[in-house]
Design goal:
By secondary structure, the protein is mostly beta strands.
């Protein structure tokens, strides 16, 4: 028995369990892999809990031990782990260990792999690392290393090939010049120092003095504030370079154009200040034959996007949130491998010429530009799965013939344009959409029957679509996704009471002409707005909402709802906004309204509510707005409004 806990692990069966390997010569257990993510459907896949039993010491022949993704009660890593002298691979990432690190692990002189990624571990001294001279893989992600001289100690590991120190609170101490004298990391291939607030003065001298063979470097989410060093161009084996979310300025050094193995370059969210034309000019050379992914989002580049076909292997280009104003014609004679193109949130106007040369496009993002026409040849992109072009100036009519070639389409967003969808009532689309965003597209006056063929949608928005007839019963019987928006149409009729285990989490049916009582299944939403309709009757269904329900916004205002307010609001304790204004409710405000301790906004204006304010309302200390005007309330304004509702900024009685 190696783990003492509510659930224990024993290895006593005659059949060797998954994750355990024995020596063919001695029969001793030499390999113990209890990583709960890797055990699949075996009976050992349930994460272990509790503390490590010292009986584990009996396995002195172990050369591989993996206890990752378990939970050992925030206990310390056992010191006796340092006694497994034959151990070559020790993996303890995300195992629920905490506290100070046992330096006895420095006795594991045969160790080649050490994975300790944990949120609650702290290491104040890294000198023990120098004893692990065979170490080739080290992962200390999330471990607090603030007090360590990490730069010096890492250079004492001559065979280190992969180093992960992301989110380690690394200090910005400038490296001493003498650490460059007799130390190097000739084998370091993969380096991750992301999310550490490192400065350029601290990291770049260390980096370029210690490795020339790097394959992957991640310095993202730091405080690097300088031009991108030319020295990156000397890393001839470099394949991946991530410098995103820093304060780098200037441009891209021409030396990067000669890095013949570079596959990924991520510079998004920096302060580079050259034109997009200059940038692509500097990326000329051998890199044109290797680059596959380029992310330059949020840099404020200006100018027109140059010809992308010169990059023969380029698959992904992210240029969103810049100031691009055009798209130069693409070379028709050059084959394109481009699969993802994101030009969202720029100032591109007119149309996109020559886009059809990129026939391999799978994802195209054009949101929030100034395009007046859809891209040329867009309907011939048969591989297209995601097409987002919301918030442009697009005009024209889209027909079913144009959409018939997009059999792989999964996500379509044409919202907030001036488009008309001319689709026949018996059209059977070739695609199954997960996301349908067609707000402000003219689709009416009839409800789109083709939606009946879409069986797996998650988000559906056909608001402001000019639809003015009855929503057919078949729609309410469909499987719903997460988001449903029919608002600002003239849809009418009754919503039938159907058996629904799951209604969308977010529902907006406001500004229509729906009538009849509100069916129970509608109240399953976390955010529900059905204001400005003609719903009538009571809202007694509120009393049938389960106690663990997570409704946060309930807007039933501007309807014809009536009768007394139900006195069962304890089941809606997560409610933040309650709006019942402009209805015909009568009677008193129920006492259970005081159970809504997270409530910030309460609107009951223009009903027939009478009596005094319930004293329980003083428990709603998060309230910022109370509007009870145009009712028949009586009595004095209670003093507790001033003493208990201290966050209140608006009050209308």
């Amino acid at each position: 028995m190696f783990v003492t806990a509510k659930k224990t692990l024993t290895i006593e069966s005659t059949k060797q369990p998954s994750g355990v390997a024995c020596s063919n010569v001695t029969g001793h257990i030499i390999h113990l892999d209890l990583n709960s993510l890797k055990l699949g459907n075996s009976p050992f896949c349930i994460p272990l809990r509790g503390k490590i039993n010292p009986a584990l010491l009996e396995l002195q022949q172990l050369n591989y031990l993996d206890l990752s993704y378990n939970y050992f009660g925030l206990s310390q890593i056992p010191k006796f782990f340092g006694s497994f002298k034959k151990l070559r691979h020790l993996k303890l990432q995300f195992s629920g260990f905490s506290g100070d690190f046992p330096y006895e692990l420095g006795n594991l002189t045969n160790l080649q792999t050490l994975e300790l990624a944990n949120w609650r571990l702290s290491i104040k001294n890294l000198e023990w690392l120098s004893h692990l001279s065979l170490l080739s893989y080290l992962d200390l992600t999330y471990v607090d290393l603030f007090e360590t001289n990490w730069q010096l100690q890492m250079t004492k590991l001559p065979f280190l090939k992969e180093l992960h120190l992301s989110s380690c609170q690394l200090s910005n101490t400038l490296p001493a010049k003498d650490i460059f004298a007799n130390s190097s990391l000739p084998s370091l291939d993969f380096l991750d120092l992301s999310i550490n607030d490192l400065t350029s003065n601290c990291i770049f001298p260390w980096l370029f003095n210690f490795t020339k063979s790097a394959i992957s470097i991640d310095l993202s989410y730091n405080q690097l504030e300088c031009p991108i060093p030319d020295a990156f161009g000397e890393l001839i084996f470099l394949e991946k370079l991530n410098l995103c979310s820093n304060k780098l300025h200037g441009g891209i050094p021409k030396s990067l154009g000669n890095v013949s193995h570079l596959i990924l370059l991520d510079l998004h969210k920096n302060n580079l200040n050259e034109s997009i034309t200059e940038l692509f000019c500097n990326l000329s050379g051998k890199v044109e034959m290797s680059l596959e992914s380029l992310d330059l989002c949020g840099i404020q580049f200006f100018g027109a996007l140059p010809d992308l076909t010169k990059f023969s292997c380029l698959r992904k280009v992210i240029l969103c949130w810049n100031q691009l104003n055009g798209f130069l014609p693409q070379s028709l004679g050059q084959p394109s491998s481009l699969e993802v193109l994101d030009l969202g949130y720029n100032h591109i106007s007119g149309s996109l010429p020559g886009l059809k040369v990129h026939s391999s496009l799978i994802e195209l993002y054009l949101t929030r530009n100034q395009l007046k026409r859809l891209p040329e040849g867009i309907w011939q992109h048969s591989k297209l799965e995601i097409f987002l072009a919301a918030s442009n100036l697009l005009e024209g009519t889209i027909t079913e013939a144009q959409l018939s070639n997009l059999a792989n389409l999964k996500c379509l967003d044409l919202s907030f344009n001036y488009l008309t969808l001319n689709l026949s009532s018996d059209w059977d689309p070739p695609f199954q959409l997960n996301d349908i965003f067609l707000s402000h597209c003219n689709m009416g006056p009839h409800f789109p029957k083709w939606l009946q063929t879409q069986n797996s949608y998650v988000n559906l928005d056909i608001s402001v679509a000019g639809i003015s007839n009855v929503v057919p019963d078949w729609f309410w019987n469909m499987s719903f996704g997460r988001y449903l928006n029919f608002s600002h149409n003239q849809m009418r009729g009754e919503i039938p009471e159907v058996s629904k285990d799951l209604f969308p989490k977010i529902v907006d049916l406001s500004h229509n002409n729906f009538s009849s009582p509100i069916p129970l299944f509608v109240f399953q939403s976390e955010i529900l707005s059905i204001s400005k309709n003609m719903f009538s009757g009571s809202i007694s269904y509120v009393c049938k909402i389960p106690n663990d329900f997570f409704a946060s916004i309930l807007d039933l205002s501007d309807n014809q709802l009536s009768r007394k307010l139900p006195n069962c609001w304890k089941s809606l304790t997560n409610l933040i906004i309650l709006n019942l204004a402009n209805n015909h409710f009568r009677g008193k405000i129920p006492n259970t309204i005081g159970a809504l301790y997270q409530l910030q906004t309460l609107h009951l204006r223009n009903n027939n509510i009478m009596g005094k304010l319930p004293s329980s309302l003083k428990n709603c200390t998060a309230l910022r707005m109370i509007d009870l005007g145009e009712n028949k309330l009586t009595g004095d304004i209670p003093a507790w409004i001033g003493t208990h509702l201290i966050r209140l900024s608006g009050l209308s009685l």
